[in-house]
Amino acid sequence: MNDDVIDSATAEPSDDDFTDFPTDKPAKFYKRFRRLVRVFGGLIRWYSSVHVTGVENLPSDGGFVVVANHQTILDSPLITAVLAKLGYVTRFLAKASYWDKRMSRMVMQATGQIQVDRLEHGKRVEVSLDLGVKTLGIDVGVKRWVVAGHPEGTRSRDGLLHRGRPGLALIAIRAGVPIVPIGIVFADDISHWPRWLKWMRRPQVTLIIGKPIHPSLDSNNRLSEWVEKHQLLKYYRGVERYAASLEGTKAGEALTARLVTDYFMRQLSKLSHREYVAEYLKIKAR
Questions:
Q1: pLDDT for residue 191
Q2: Which of 9, 58, 209, 274 can bridge 161 by disulfide, Cβ–Cβ 3.0-4.6 Å?
Q3: Are 136 and 171 in contact (CB under 8 A)?
Q4: How many domains does the chain have?
Q5: How do residues 1-51 score in pLDDT, each as one tens digit?
Q6: CATH number, domain at 118?
Q7: Contacts from 92-100 at CB under 8 Å and sequence distance 24+?
Q8: Within-domain flag for 130
């Protein structure tokens, strides 16, 4: 989208920008989703050797939010294919620039991805978050719907895990669902490989599914203890009371999302076997 079309945070998203097939006709979308996943899942299994651990940590009922580290273009399709085999419909938050070209836009829309403009704030981002919340509220038979994303915002090319952005935590808080961290571990460190060599070598990949994290200081003792231990409320906002006491306010929601995000990024660091650094990755495109 051109700059003259977007008037910063005050621009109203158009229906064309945010076409939402799954929440409009979820049953019809699911049939198409299954066909596409079979094709992409078959290609992924042919191209890579995938091992999954921690399946027992997935919530037994209802939807949830998945957060994962991000190193290659294979990450999102890999998680989608694995969760589809377990009976989940997964929608990823994807950068808005994928919708700028016809071919990639067709793939994004056909697979039900949720576009998010990573360099925008305000109403446009709120629309994306709202689609995520609506997705988690879909109830079609026994199918369970999942919203997933890579909190770093883009691929990490230095082998480190960087600070996460709070959008996924906000979706989980608003939908009242748990967050499931998934560490993606490659047998070889491919972050420094030339791009052509990455595609030639068959990667050995392990998906490590961690325990669900409830995005609330009231219902998550581990999170509360971590916040208290590091005096994070004092660090973030200069307040000495829990964000839960600000429940229902924008300030409380934002603070809770920030705390939850920093907490699950440290869990991702353990699962993905990557060192965590509290610095954002630089985003070059939307």
A1: 54
A2: 274
A3: yes
A4: 1
A5: 334 333 333 344 444 455 566 666 777 777 777 777 777 777 776 666 789
A6: 3.40.1130
A7: 92/147, 92/148, 92/149, 93/128, 93/132, 93/147, 93/148, 93/149, 93/167, 93/168, 95/154, 95/285, 95/286, 96/1, 96/120, 96/286, 97/285, 97/286, 99/1, 99/17, 100/1
A8: yes
**Residues 250, 256, 257: CA angle, nearest 5 degrees:** 90
256: containing domain = 8-277
Residue 176 in domain: yes
> 142 or 131: whose pLDDT is higher?
131
171-to-43, 188, 201, 270 alpha-carbon distances in Å: 31, 33, 36, 23
The model's pTM: 0.81
Residue 15 lies in a domain: yes
